[in-house]
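Repro:
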Amino acid sequence: MAFGERLKRSAALGMGVAMALVLALSAWLQGAADADIATQDRQREAVLLANALSASLAGTPEGGLNDRLKAWQAGNPAIQSVLVVAGRELLGSTRAEDEAPRGLKRDEKPLFDLVGTLRAAGETNVGEGVVRKKTIQVEDKAGVVTVSVPYRVDGQFAGLVQARVQPAARHGGGGGAGWALPLALLAAAVAIGAFLAVDPARRVDVGRALAVVALLVLAIGYQQQRLGAMRATLDASDAAIGQVQAAAAALNARVGGAPPKEGASPWDTDHYGRALGHVSAAGQPLAHAGAAPKETRTVFLQRSLWAVVLLGLATLLYYTQGYAGRTWKALREHADAYAYVAPAMIGMLVLVFFPFFYGIGLAFTDTTLFNESAPFRERWIGLDNFIAILGDFNIVTKSAEGTVVNYQNFYWTLMMTVIWTVTNVTVGVSVGFILALALNTDGLKGKAIYRVLLILPWAIPNYITALVWRGMFHPQFGVINQMLQMFGLEPVAWFDSVVSAFMTGLVTNGWLSFPFMMVVILGALQSIPRDMYEAAEVEGATRWQQLKSITLPLLRPTLVPAVVLSVVWTFNMFNIIFLVSGGEPAGANEILITKAYKIAFEQYQYAYAAAYSTVIFVILLVYGYFQTRITRATESY
């Protein structure tokens, strides 16, 4: 096959694969969104009917509870059964076998427990002034939705109303494009690619640029069609729920229930009992109130589709740049090697890369302990977490009592982290360098014993070392204060001031860090040819001149990567801070990694902690990149 024909084939194949990827992922996103809307509508209809039922029972005449329940069931075929439970009593039921009213049976204990759960949730929300617990329980299985809502008498919680509802299946109003439009777009993409010849060897190529533009135009057109389908589906959803609301209001009026007030429907609520405000009491969609949720859904879908388009463009460039051909050739030539490393690659993908990218994605949400089960689109907030972290410069405030330092501020914690890293790396490198020079001395007796003793702090697990040093710094029973008292000095409350608490961590981590640097530097020193020092001595060079002109330059390729690694380790040295000082006093000695941990697992702000961790990663990535570029750490001398 001629070279030009291969290039055309590559462009056509790239356009086809990229467009197929865009179409498939866009259809999947649209399908997932439609399924989510269908599930939400099904549960929303069941909640609306259960709320309407509960409101209707508030004015039921004595002894007429079962009759009203049966009237509701007869008037709405979606309602399969209804139970009313108060305390240990089954007050009413539409099922003949229940013979209500009666006491609950032993096997009905889950109903009694559910009454307590709803009561506790309502009281917690009122007591805390924050709606964080669900006051409506929903169970959705095989298209049948079981909803439990509070049952109130004279405005006070009395029990629950549990309705089993099977909503009628409804189709979304948007409709898909079927197979016609996707196939037409795919055929158009392949046809365009067949007429384009690209040159992978050229950075700027007209054929490649035309392919990118063509794919972008086709993908945007399909994107707009999908967004239009989403908007139509949302409009149909509100219209259908409006019909359910109108029918429920009419049925409620027929059985003698109190009519809902004008305005937004009080029955159309979320699982926390908060009115959604999408439809009126008469069943008419409220366009103004419902605009924000619709916009949130469509904007999320739009951003997702744009991500798909960018992925398609990357796939197209992967083919047109010639990387696909090289990859396929490498896979064929080295199939055995890739088969051997495949398990490790899969393990890395599952255990390292997936958690890493999931954490980065989590940083763009507002996920906490209380909303982690909510759909991802409802938790998406973009860059708000990063703005909150990096945009807060309130480090010091002045008041009538004086100057107050905000130890919870990101920049204070960053400053302490930098000071912590610089001081610890300096101590570790300095002590390790001095000990390595001493151990490298010719004729030193007992060198092997010294090496074993000096490497012991590194051999002991650091969390054990941290706990030992914390005990040594104990203000009352610690050996350090005992020794101070032996010399007539006052004991020190090590964890009560910023400086003394910082020193406890510095001493502990210095004890842990010098053996690593000592071993690395000692190995590098022993690799330096001895004849270089002999030649320097012949030329009259002093010890200092030999150190400056021979030792340090030849140590540089080994020392700089070790320092970079030590900086990364120390920057994220969680155990020492957490176990020794605990960040005391008042969090003043926290470093970024311990602050992120406490935000996640003590304050339960998972997304904010993920954003914190992402900032830490970016800081270390930038440091490592520029450190190696500036020092040329990987180059030999």
